[in-house]
Amino acid sequence: MVDITERARKLREVAYYPGCALEGSGNGYDVSTRAIAYELGLKLRDVKDWNCCGAMEVKNIDPKIQTYLSSRVLSQAVNANRNPVVMAPCNGCYHNLKKAEYDLAHDPKSREVVAQLSTKAGHETYEAGQAETIHALDWIKDTIGEEGLRQRTKGRLAGLKIANYYGCMYVRPRHIFPEKDKGPGSESTSKPHFMDDLLAAAGADNVEFPLKTACCGGAHTLSDSDTSTKLVLNILQAAEASGAEVIATECPTCHSGLEMHQIRAEKRFGKKTNVKILYFTQLLGLALGIKPRKLGIQQNISNSLDFIHEKGLT
Amino acid sequence: MATFTEIETRIDEIAEAGPSAPPGLTLCASELLSLGETVLERWIVARGETPTNETREGFRLLALHRQGAKGDPSFNACRETARELAYHYNLVTLEPQHPDTAKRIRLAAMVAKHLVLFVGGKLEVSGLGDFCCAAKPVRATETTN
Fold first, then answer.
1. Can you tell me the distance from the alpha carbon of B6 to that of A306, in angstroms, rounded to the nearest whole number?
2. With an 8 Å Cβ cutoff, is A237 touching chain B?
């Protein structure tokens, strides 16, 4: 019997903030997140009239404008959706909303700028503490949990060797994630494990992967592609050396970077890697018996469909 | 002093040689740790500082990383990489007879390579890690109001 805690009840319906990547290159992440929500009986209500979180581009020029943009998303969730829990599957969105929360709690100048711009834009000013931002990993972990997944998936991912890649923005900088590193049960910023825990509950065989949060070059993909390709190639090769058949991702930027540089590494450096790259929500969806097409797997750049058939996951 | 390319080549040799890696697996672990220290020393020297000889948690590598990250939070993007290298050194040297030792050396080599690639990349493109991990406004001075 699954224990339904107060927190699990609170998170069964959340304000969903897909962000721009999940409407574009990371659409498979959006499709699979919605598909598993439906299957698990969880409700996602899109943040009404959501806007850009400020991403890296705005933050790169003026971090206070980024704080404002993220604060408006939080304001919309609280005032338009009437839901104080915002679930952001994208690491960039999640990071920026967390950073805005931190800035508004600690920096008077940020509060001043956000109040001015919110008034000018004609919406309620968001104040620190009104909402809680969670990642898709927190959401599944706190609502369904490992035991709930174990019961529902019946070990369907058994024998699948997975390297879990979390990327950087899920854990860095540490001070914007005050709920992490709180001991047993909490997420770790140095060795994150929530994705490992959830996939293991679905039967997966997680490998020891030493580059879980290693830099992939990220935003330098366009300005210095060779550095990014080399960093990604090393991550892919390390995953294979760890014995992984699949790299599980939980960030659309990481995911696209791994997929694109996997192709570029072969073209540019003649280095071919065969490890598959799938969102953790796609893997959980397969474990729940959802068809690959309904999980947007055909939208991924790398082709995993034959592999999924071979593994009997369709 | 070895160049970054030479360091990378040596790390690749260790990674590819696997169980037959000369001059022996535990010595390879020490060499990888030493190569990691060399890479971090380069970063610190490039900042105009003298690399520390202190240790942290028993490793000079970790003390060097701490020194390299002082005042530059984006350098924390390789903090866990440095810690993984120290961890793999411990695995190999404390359990040299373990059946996974060859695999552990290979992974240690890949971790060391990541350190070389990141620090080498950062020496060429200083913004690497800046605006994602450290959330720094690296282009703020290039805009006009």
1. 40
2. yes
